[in-house]
Specification:
224 residues, alpha/beta, Rossmann fold, Arc Repressor Mutant, subunit A, 2 domains, five-stranded parallel β-sheet, 8 helices, 13 strands, 41% helix, 23% strand, elongated, DNA-binding, OmpR/PhoB-type_DNA-bd, WalR-like, transcription
């Protein structure tokens, strides 16, 4: 089966170049030029991944991504000329699976697509993870402690789920960056910040929540 991509990009020359190359290497591509057509394309049956530009003529690509994330876990790669750290962080925090700054090669785009598709189809894991009072429903993408839901951002949830899938196992910052952010070129401070947030949210629960332990010089583990 040819993976089906939604390409949401308003620059016709760039979009046609991308679509031609992606179709040449084995993808089916639906192209949309604005947020209205993009929304329809994102919810089209059979779409496996979206490539989303942020600067669209009738709205913000980030708002389109935010709306999608309220109902769907469809993998999304943001492509944008906005390369500042704040822009990349905003896209990833809202729920992008990867962020690619223009200009880039078509080969790199294809490699990123394959990597995100692999991550979006992990080996079978239990639908429910239980670590002490922590319960993670992978199907619903919800976490709770002693029955009380945790309000988590997408990356916070992904980090907690990864740690909870292997309690007491130590994960390095590079492993966490590669699995959750899609690349280890992100600074380890990104992991430190998310661990800090998670610890705060776990500490504020009324139940006996598991704790995230720092193993100095190695990384992090989740202890019941």
């Amino acid at each position: 089966m040819r993976p089906h991509l939604a390409l949401i990009e308003d620059d016709p020359d760039f979009a046609l170049m991308c679509r031609s190359y992606l179709e040449l290497v084995g993808f089916t591509v639906t192209w949309a030029m604005d947020t209205r057509a993009g929304k329809a394309a994102l919810y089209e049956s059979g779409v496996d991944l979206a490539v989303l530009d942020l600067g669209l003529p009738d709205g913000s690509g980030l708002e389109l991504l935010r709306a999608l994330r309220s109902t769907s876990r469809l993998p999304v790669i943001v492509v944008s000329g906005r390369g500042a750290e704040a822009d990349r962080v905003a896209g990833l925090e809202i729920g992008a699976d990867d962020y690619l700054v223009k200009p880039f090669s078509q080969r790199e785009l294809v490699a990123r697509i394959h990597a995100v598709l692999r991550r979006s189809q992990p080996p079978q894991t239990p639908d429910v993870l239980q670590v002490g009072a922590l319960r993670i429903d992978s199907g619903a993408r919800q976490a709770s402690v002693a029955g009380v839901p945790l309000e988590l951002r997408p990356k916070e949830y992904a980090l907690l789920e990864m740690l909870a899938a292997a309690p007491a196992r130590v994960f390095s910052a590079d492993q966490l960056l590669e699995r959750i952010w899609g690349s280890s070129w992100w600074q380890p401070a990104t992991v430190v910040e998310h661990v800090y947030r998670l610890r705060g949210k776990l500490a504020r629960t009324t139940g006996p929540a598991p704790r995230i332990t720092t193993v100095r010089g190695y990384g992090y583990r989740l202890d019941p």
